[in-house]
User: Which sequence fits this backbone?
């Protein structure tokens, strides 16, 4: 009989202990769930100014023409400020010369003795235009006189061919022409409305029209 009572007491004690452990486990689980649900309640909050600053910091950087404020970058003294950073290039920074066109006697390529003949002479440009349309296999007769847009286009081509001595640039490869050269050519053959195409990077769909 004593043994039976002892067994009852043992199982009662064990059952109570198990219940207490289950209750503790349940309480811990509830506490954990509570903490997970409100896990960010102590995180710092940002002010509107801080949020705006973060948004600005993550925004893409906008390209700015850093040379558009002054002509400090020009050493030939004949450049003008053009719309984009790439176009604000001095002839002394141009790296496509194959002979010494600029020296102690000629500090600007646009002042070279042959520049006007090669790039500005109307007869030379008209002849170059005829060669160009034949090269492009275009049919028809060339105009008797080029308009200013055609003259500018051929003048730019003449300049590149002249300073590179006809060396091929490569398919769809474009060169930024120095500001002083662009300025002088535009002065000789101005746009009627004052608008100019400017420099564009080459793309697969490019043609040779400008």
Assistant:
């Amino acid at each position: 009989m004593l043994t039976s009572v002892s067994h009852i007491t043992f199982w009662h004690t064990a059952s109570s202990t198990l219940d207490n452990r289950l209750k503790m486990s349940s309480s811990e689980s509830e506490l954990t769930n509570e903490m997970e649900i409100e896990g960010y309640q102590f995180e710092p909050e940002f002010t509107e100014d801080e949020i705006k600053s973060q948004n600005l910091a993550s925004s893409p950087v906008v390209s700015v023409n850093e040379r558009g404020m002054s002509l400090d970058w020009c050493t030939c003294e004949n450049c003008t400020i053009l719309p984009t950073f790439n176009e604000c290039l001095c002839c002394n920074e141009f790296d496509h010369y194959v002979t010494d066109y600029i020296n102690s006697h000629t500090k600007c390529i646009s002042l070279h003795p042959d520049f006007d003949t090669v790039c500005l002479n109307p007869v030379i440009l008209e002849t170059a235009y005829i060669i160009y349309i034949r090269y492009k296999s275009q049919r028809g007769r060339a105009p008797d006189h080029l308009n200013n847009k055609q003259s500018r286009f051929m003048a730019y081509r003449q300049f590149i061919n002249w300073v590179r001595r006809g060396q091929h640039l490569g398919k769809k490869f474009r060169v930024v022409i120095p500001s002083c050269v662009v300025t002088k050519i535009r002065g000789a053959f101005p746009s009627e409305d004052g608008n100019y195409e400017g420099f564009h990077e080459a793309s697969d769909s490019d043609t040779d029209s400008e």
